[in-house]
Amino acid sequence: MVDIRDFSIDELCNAGKIIVIHSAMNGGKTETLVKEMKRALYNGVNSMAYNTDINARERDAIVVDGKIFHPALTVGPISEIKKDFEDRRSQLEYFLDKPITWGEEIMIRGVPHIKGYPLRVLGVDEVNFFMKNDQEAREMLALADWCSNQKVASYFAGLSHDFRHMPFGLVERLIKYADIVGQKKPACMGIPEGEVKCSKPATHSQRLWTRQYAESQGLEHLPDFNFVGKKHNRIVGLYVPAPFFDLTVASETKEEEARQSEIEYLPVCKDCAKHPYKNETGLVLDAIRKGVDPSSAVDDELITKKIINFLTHPFEGYVERTPEGIYVPLHKNNPFS
């Protein structure tokens, strides 16, 4: 039997290791991150968690299922993470050789830490929002590398794919760079036929709209998507799969905040995942790539308008609309065909 007391603090807290935890939506990755942040204290070190200001609903806390609130700092650019972490570490190092009361806390910018414990664990939730482009990906890899050189364990939790099962930002680069990769595969929550839950290993994130919201968008004909809820209750006839052209990242407006109550996410398997209007989105993009009027690609003015709005959105990065109204494709290939 191995006695845990034989291990050094470095070994107990994965010092210098880069750990990535990814899964489908509601797959347990954030819960795992929070557990690792809490476990640090049992190993005699402090931890510090960060999340993104893109998510307007969770400020200065990492939230699991709306019930568990773990203290965190909400930041904008990646540079704020390193700056804050270094400052906290410096403040906590002051107490390492000072007489203190066992378990005495110090509050630093709203987050409690234990005096006498070094800061050796860093956690980032929703890392996919921090790696939207090449520059951000390089900065995140640099942060991970810095943590490794400083003997700081760094945990990154996030989605590797969006609800269309397409790469979410450039998280794959971080996965390849990591020392340890944990992929959570929950059970599929879909009810494909009859009343039986699928339960296959879930690899996809299914975004759902309430039927009421779909009708308000003129998409009342979308099919039902039945599933088992978090309370293990069957939910039938109330939700539909979000269309393929729904924007990946919501804007921070009052209208969008209200819309969030109309959206649900589920972990599902490949067979149960549904993406209405994927083919139509590909047809519109093909028309743009060929220099053809995109309105001729799909015989539905409303759908065409929504698809073009998706393709030309700055975050999506598929098409640019010039001041003259000309649509310019930004990729050589059509990823939707």
Q: What report would you give on this structure?
A:
- The chain is an alpha/beta fold and 337 residues long.
- 27% of the residues lie in helices and 22% in strands.
- It folds into three domains: 4-184, Rossmann fold; 204-245 and 260-268, no CATH class; 278-329, no CATH class.
- The strands form six sheets. Strands 5-2-8-9-1-10 form a six-stranded parallel beta sheet, sandwiched between helices. A three-stranded antiparallel beta sheet has the order 14-11-15. Strands 3-4 form a two-stranded antiparallel ribbon.
- Helix 8 packs across helix 9.
- The protein is globular.
Descriptors for this entry?
Rossmann fold; single chain; alpha/beta; six-stranded parallel sheet; three-stranded antiparallel sheet
Q: Rough shape?
A: globular
Question: What fraction strand?
Answer: 15-25%
N-to-C series of helices and strands: HEHEEEEHEEEHEHEEHEEEHEHHEE
Question: Ranges with pLDDT <50 over ≥5 residues?
Answer: 1-9
Q: Strand order across the biggest sheet?
A: 5-2-8-9-1-10
Number of helices: 9
Under CATH at level 1, the class of the largest domain stands as Alpha Beta
* Helicity, as a percent range: 25-40%
Q: What is the fourth-level CATH superfamily of the largest domain?
A: P-loop containing nucleotide triphosphate hydrolases
Sheet bearing the most strands, described? 6 strands, parallel
Kindly, what is the distance between the CA atoms of the first and last residues, rounded to a whole number of angstroms? 56 Å
**CATH second-level architecture of the largest domain:** 3-Layer(aba) Sandwich
